[in-house]
Amino acid sequence: MVFVADSQRSREEYNKKSLADLKTNLKANRIDPDKVPLVLQYNKQDLRDLVTVNELNADLNDRKVPAFNAVAIRGKGVLETLAAILKEATKAAIASNGTHFSRLNDDELNATVEKIFAPYLKRASQLSGEVRPVTSRYKEVRLSSRDMDPSARSDGPIRGDLTLEPLDLLSRSVGSSIVIAEDSSQEAKAADKIEKMRKDLAVLGELTAKACADSDFDQVHTKTVDLAIENTAFDCGSLLLINDESKTMGEKILRGLKRDPLNAIEIKSVGTLAYQLAQRKEAILTHNVQDRLFCSNPSSEMEGIHGLASYPLVAKNFPLGLINLYATRPGKLFGQDEELFLTILSHILGLYLLSSFYALKLNSLSSEK
To answer: Is the domain defined by 188-368 classed in CATH 3.30.450.40?
Structure first.
């Protein structure tokens, strides 16, 4: 393997990141990055504002492998790099084949490779001032992470005896690069999503404190449902408040619904299904509503509902209401981040409802006086 670094100072951090990515790529193919034959090439030595060789070595050459200055567009340092990596690769092949090549020592190997390259290096030195176009033949490889051979995945031990055909190695390298890129992209998206959730919860916390002081309760109810839908895979929802006298739920906020489906399902002598779920004080998060709630007796009220998140609003162990979120399109998934977000959000709203109850009671007493 040859790692080509850009010697310009403006690319110093890029070189470090590229080398780190390369090591990750090798591990994804179960190749030990500390044992694979390696040569470094410090390219673009004809440009200005260069990192010194000592600095490049300090940043990139922790293995103390052969390193060459190069001006690739003029051919300078290219054949020297090629000769060096052939030596290193051959030494590794000899080492991995036990005693079969034990009579060939390093000095003999070096002398043989240098003898082969001598006439080409001489010719290259004579033409080093020319700018020659570099052409290459390649076979286009189109892969996605779904096309990869499972053996190329990063699970399992690193193999030291991995033998691959060149095109196979190219395919695996491209495939693992795609996986790494997809993982990096997903991590970045997840980080952005978590940061947004954190900020939205902070906004909700500030809003509840302000609303209790100003008695602007509807603003918090509306904001809670909107944030819940906005930060999850659900596309409609509701906020329900308990009415113990009728064993029903008052539909305080509806988003994308004419009526809450769970509150439309009556259970004889015990109230609506939504009321019963609130009394249980247990969260429900499911991709398959019919199987989870109704088993072999599907409900017509829940027709077209695929996913459900039903979170109880509880304070001092008293059930106060429900926040229900529905996914009307199949294939919508939710993860641990969304589950944690909804748990925190429902706790905030539960405490807020209790606070608003006390605030209303205080206002009522003040009015009577």
So the answer is: yes
